[in-house]
Amino acid sequence: MRQRHWPGAIIAALSFHVFGNWSEAAHLAHPRDLIACTLLLVGPLALAWRSRAPIAVLAVAGAATVGYATLSTPTWTYAVAPVIALFTAVRDGRRRAALIVTAVGYLAYLLIFWFAADPLGLPAAARPTVRDAVLTVLGLALTTFIGGAARARGTYLAEMAKAQAERARAQEEQERRQAADERLRIARELHDVLGHHLSLINVQAGVGLHLMDNRPEQAREALAAIKTASSEALREVRAVLGVLRPEEEAAPRQPALGLDRLTDLTADAGLPVTTETVGERRALPAEVDRAAYRIVQEALTNVRRHASTGAAATVAVEYAPNELRLAIRNEGPGPPPKPNPDDEAAASDAGSGIAGMRARAASLGGALSAGPLPDGGYLVSVTLPTTPATTR
User: Fold this and answer.
1) Does residue 160 lie in a domain region?
2) Domain harbouring 356, CATH code
3) Confidence band (pLDDT; 50, 70, 90) for 85?
4) Distance in angstroms (rounded) separating the CA atoms of residues 220 and 105
């Protein structure tokens, strides 16, 4: 598992090595002082390559640390670089190789300072005691454990992120499938309704035309049957399409819906609504005008559903040269409550209004964004393209 390494570890290791041991290294006899100072810098600088070659960096840092210990009386700060290298190697999944390199380096350290100290002329102060050897082993073991724990945590977080992404994709696919199934069901139902009644109307119209001159009374009956069939067809079509309308939305009473009825819409919103208009008002394409009305209507419905008690809303309409911009803002004391992620039904219901508005805007080549505001409330921003020919 490849991790991104920051220069903070290099700076920290350099600080410990230099400030903890530089004065003693610099007072050694020449050229031992140059060698000791170089070895103090080798380990921390090698950490820059620990993401590419963690085992090699561990070996270099450990060898430099043991080499420095043979030249000067060290403090514990000279071993920071190999400890960081060991932690990184274990965290990156090279635990076995790191333990082998660490064990070899530690045994070499003990052999040099316990059995070859006299031939090498090492001072007695540099030789580790049994207590120092045991504490060193414990420190290396603790470093290995922390590195393994960091790797396990990283793996767990990666799996959680992957599982969350899979759940999101599955939920999105399920929503698309459910929407497709619902559209297919409605299409079949409309096909059945219209097919039956239009066939009846066609037959009765043929009968009426045939009997118009010779038997006007029977032709009248045929026309009455056509009227009844057409009325029944309209009623059933309205019933089918009515299930698509939100419960709180009143059925339209006029055929044309647009921003010219925005005053009536805000007056019946059920909460205080302020309307702002920017730019010269002009005629819009029918589909844009209708989509703008529906988006404002749905946004105000969402405010009424989810906003806190006493909330108000602001509807801003801007007539730009080539587009219409809408901004519906909930100015209540807080944003709409977020659904419980464990409750899939609630999450789906909460997002259906935004998804519908976004789909309506996208169908006209526009865009919609929605989200909570930092200071509280909720903002829905919409951009709908218009054509120059509609400008008056």
Assistant:
1) no
2) 3.30.565.10
3) very high
4) 109
